[in-house]
Amino acid sequence: xxRLKIGEARRLSSLLFVNVIGLRDLQNYIPGLSSRxxxxxKLRARSSVPIVxxxxxxxxxxxIRIHYFVAFITSAIVSTGLPYGERDVTTSDGSKLxxxxxxxxxxxxxxIRMYKxxxxxxxxxxxxxSDSVAYGILKKCSATRRHALLCVDYFLADGADAFExxxxxxxxxxxxxxxxxxxxxxxxxxVAQSRLYLKTxxxxxxxxxxxxxxxxxxxxxxxxxDSNFKCQGKDHSHTLRCPRCVxxxxxxxxxxSLVNSLNKDMEKSHPYKKTVSEMVVRMxxxxxxxxxxxxxxxxxxxxxxxxxxIIANLNDGEAFVTMDFCQKFLAMSxxxxxxxxxxxxxxxxxxxxxxxxxV
Length: 359
Fold this sequence. Notes:
This protein is mainly α. It has 14 helices and three strands.
């Protein structure tokens, strides 16, 4: 072993390996080589011989993990498509593409929590990516955050309004000293949890055949009185109950029972008689709206499954076309008929019927 002599750094510059071998590795072969002499030799070698730097690509994740996460955030549980608008995205090679605009239904934190729960349910917990990677993907993925439900999904909009109205009823009852604080706090918490459950985890629990009656597509979408809409598959029993569905139904029944008993016991001269009478009607309407919201979630979940099945079985030369909202078709129809505008009260079902008539 010898130490590097004066002038050897200059001769070292003629060697190409200084551009491809690191300082620490080179010091194992040339003891006494300082970082200054090494870098000087590297600069001299580069100035005389063109060196092509190797391209280093680091993969800090497993592609299969990203596949599961991207498949989840692009599913109908998390995102919904819009019938208009496009968004420009840039690929890894720098090229730009135009893709249809979509709306993301939940916040990033809710999406990640739902994703982890979904991976645990399907037995893929070992493939869950870290929160930092998930947030990074959600930031880069192109989607619009949902700020309103009107003109997007009236069932969800009416259901959200119903939950807010129930909260207002509980606040009013407590303010009128008709409901004690502890019970009001408990019911308010259960209402909030029920709203969150329908918004997030409920669709994750839906299955074609489930032992929980509220989560079973076959039971929910079958009509026992009409053979055309009755499931012809093998019968199965519903022996389990969903705790969160039970809490939601019990909470609504208890609130309804309270306002009904207050309305029945109050005299007409009572100062809160009119208010409580209105609450009876409001609770009935709210429960109906939330029930319709729940039905819509079941129908939408099964529709997504059927759409996926149809697309997977498409042959060459075939295409699957979805017509939703039909703003462009309605505008064309109104323009041809000579009207100046579309009435704002035109709902989603009326739009679909108009689109069918156009086709």
